[in-house]
Design goal:
The complex is a heterodimer. Chain A is mostly helical. Chain A is built from five helices and no strands. Classes of the chains: A mainly alpha, B mainly alpha. Chains A and B meet through helix 3 of A and strand 2 and helix 6 of B.
Chain lengths: ~120, ~160
């Protein structure tokens, strides 16, 4: 009886871990990102802190937001002719690599917590 | 009388004050450019005419730079007030968008021109995010410029 219960628990645990790993993001490859990022750096700055004001700063931005933005450019859900060209050929793995790479760079981006009147 | 004196002065934003001179400058520019365009039909070699032309050219250049300077940026003080709504999502550290799940971006310290472009895209439908589209649609171009001026001035070191 006891053994059966333990087995059942183990089976359940196995199912859960398989389910979790199926949805987990692929591991990030920063070395691959470094090569790909050279294209981005022409406009977004070598350190991800673009000094040309029309291009956004990427350094220190949330990685999952950067990934979402790239997915939207790739899918044409954001209309930007420049980014459409670059995002077009990116794989999910490329997007995940690049997002992690730029997110890890030090930058000046902040959320608005404590920045408003009376805070 | 007492009531009258207690009334606050009418609110005139910097943008409203800018409006009229800008329109005047634009009209002046058109007039000057028309004068310059007519030049091939004037008798050549007239010293007075050449001097007037040079003067008009200088005036045209000056008025152009004035307009550009006025249009350069929104008002960060106005933007601080207008950006209050933004804090509902962008003011909570680590706040996430639901379905799909990802962090709302850090927008403080972002570049001015990019912020203007992004908000304008939400406003005109170039970007589809429903909440941000609704926000963008409620903003005038002046609101967008003010909010972008406020946000771009924020720095992590402050």
């Amino acid at each position: 009886m006891m053994i059966n219960k333990t087995l059942a628990r183990l089976a359940l645990l196995g199912t859960v871990s398989i389910a979790t790993s199926a949805f987990a993001a692929p591991p990030v490859n920063l070395e691959a990102a470094k090569v790909l990022a050279q294209t981005c750096q022409a406009c977004h700055g070598a350190d991800g802190n673009s000094t040309a004001a029309i291009y956004p700063r990427l350094a220190g931005q949330y990685a999952d937001y950067l990934a979402r933005a790239l997915q939207e450019y790739r899918a044409g859900e954001r209309n930007n002719p420049i980014m459409a060209v670059y995002a077009e050929n990116l794989s999910d793995q490329d997007i995940s690599n690049l997002s992690a790479y730029f997110s890890a760079m030090p930058g000046q981006l902040v959320d608005l917590h404590g920045r408003m009147e009376g805070q | 009388m007492r009531l009258r004196s207690a009334c606050p002065e009418p609110v005139v934003t910097s943008r409203m004050r800018k409006g009229k001179p800008q329109a005047l400058t634009f009209a002046t520019q058109i007039a000057i450019l028309l004068c310059l365009l007519q030049s091939p039909f004037q008798p050549a070699g007239s010293g007075t005419f050449e001097m007037t032309r040079a003067l008009l050219l200088v005036l045209a250049l000056f008025s152009t730079t004035t307009v550009l300077a006025q249009d350069a940026k929104g008002d960060p003080a106005e933007g601080r007030l207008k950006a209050y709504t933004c804090t509902g999502c962008h003011g909570i550290t680590g706040w996430k968008n639901a379905y799909p799940n990802y962090h709302v971006p850090r927008i403080g310290g972002q570049n001015y021109d990019y912020l203007v472009a992004a908000l304008t895209e939400y406003k005109n439908g170039g970007r589809k995010h429903p909440t941000m589209r609704a926000q963008g649609e409620s903003m005038s171009d002046a609101d967008i410029a003010d909010i972008a001026a406020f946000l771009s001035n924020l720095k992590s070191a402050e």
